[in-house]
Design goal:
alpha+beta, about 230 residues, Fumarylacetoacetate hydrolase, domain 2, binds manganese (II) ion, five-stranded mixed β-sheet
């Protein structure tokens, strides 16, 4: 074991439903457009766009949801999250579920939309819009050994009891198996990686004090309250 010049940071992790042991989080891959947002949307021929968040922005989806600094357009995106238990590159789609997926969760790909629009216009990277602290709340992971591999089931999010997003997992343009196989052809996946699989239409703005609730199939359900704006007087 190497000695380090500073104290190594704590391993990022997620709780596992019904277990004492946690799941160690490695990298966080987020898939872009993967549901029909417009009637004309069809599955892209190429790999959908993806970006990353650091592991330490993954937090339990409960309690207070911190309003991030530097934005006036803090947006929700509810997503099915896939946890990779065994890594690999160029994974055969036929082996994705049985060999590589450890479990599933409901997650939020929180976004500073104003910074994302600025980045898109300027051709800049998205990290400022996507990779901020607390930007990836997740429910406890459910092992695939318990929940199987969900192909259908409601994915929804409401704000103050008013529904904003609703779709079905069967609406995914690129299903989980294909997504994981495609990612593994681009980068070698590692145990501990999470894949956020994209969000249905209806993304929208959160305000301080909002109660954000949602669920993904029988996998996870959350309710959080948005904290005060950090730049509020
Ligand atoms: Mn997203």
């Amino acid at each position: 074991m190497a000695d380090f010049v500073i104290e190594p940071p704590a391993q990022a992790s997620l709780p596992v439903a019904g277990r004492k042991e946690a799941f160690p989080v490695g990298r966080v891959f987020c898939i872009g457009r993967n549901y029909k947002w417009d009637r004309d949307d069809t599955a892209p021929v190429e790999m959908p766009p993806w970006f990353m968040k650091p592991a330490n922005v993954v937090v339990p989806a409960q309690g207070e949801l911190p309003y991030p600094p530097g934005t006036e357009d803090f947006c929700h995106e509810v997503e099915l999250v896939v946890a990779i238990g065994r890594g690999g590159s160029d994974i055969d789609p036929a082996h994705v579920e049985a060999r590589h997926i450890w479990g599933y969760a409901a997650g939020l790909d929180l976004t500073r939309r104003d910074l994302q629009q600025q980045a898109k216009r300027a051709g800049n990277p998205w990290e400022a819009a996507k990779a901020f602290d607390h930007s990836a709340p997740c429910t406890p992971l459910v092992p695939a050994a318990v929940c199987g591999h969900p192909r259908q089931g409601a994915i929804w999010l409401s704000v103050n009891g008013v529904e904003r997003q609703r779709a079905d997992l069967s609406d995914l343009l690129w299903p989980v198996v294909e997504l994981v196989a495609m990612l593994s052809r681009s980068v070698a996946l590692r145990p501990g990686d999470l894949v956020f699989t994209g969000t249905p239409s209806g993304v929208g703005r959160l305000q301080p004090g909002d109660v954000v609730s949602g669920a993904v199939a029988d996998i996870g359900r959350f309710s959080m309250t948005v904290s005060a704006h950090p730049e509020a007087a």
